[in-house]
What does this fold into?
Amino acid sequence: MKISVLAVFLCFATCTVQAQTDSIKNYVTVALDLMKTRSVNKNKINWPEVYASSYQAIAKAKTIRETYPTIEAVIKQLGNEHSNFYKPELISFILKRYSENGQKLPVTEAKLIDKSYGYFTIPAIGCYNFTDWQEYVTTALTEIKKLDQQPLKGWIIDLRDNEGGMFVPMYAAIAPFVENKKLIGSRNSDSKGHLFQSKKRNCI
It folds into this structure.
């Protein structure tokens, strides 16, 4: 009876380790598959070699977190500065409101210059929280509308302190200045898509 129990325990332990190993390898495989399929630079690296070297690098990994450096290394090989690997704690951070993280939401600063020019800023916004997005956009549009009630000669849109971030809310904040609805476009990893140009407007 003791021998049978021991055999069952060993079998269970072996299956558990194997399942964990499979889970770790599958996690890396999914990450590599996404990069191979969607990266704009997917044709710049040798994928068979990348898969092989990645599996070798994680051979002794006991947790998924131990695979992070391997995934980050492949992203670096792709050479695309807009592709990054975000760890769970960072994802949790950017999904929250600025206030939940003890930060102040960046909002538009607006004023009238020389009684002739409307001036406003479009600050960078880095969270992925739609409530904050809405407040950010609403504030910007409200300030622009106030200035637009003046007999302006032109506009000054200040982007000097904008280091980038979430495109959608920042783009929505300048909606009053977008005359061509087909202003932007995109291309996928196979270069399929469309790019559009905007019309000029009296902005400084």
User: Anything to note?
Assistant: Strands lie at 110-113, 117-121, 154-158, 186-187, 193-194.
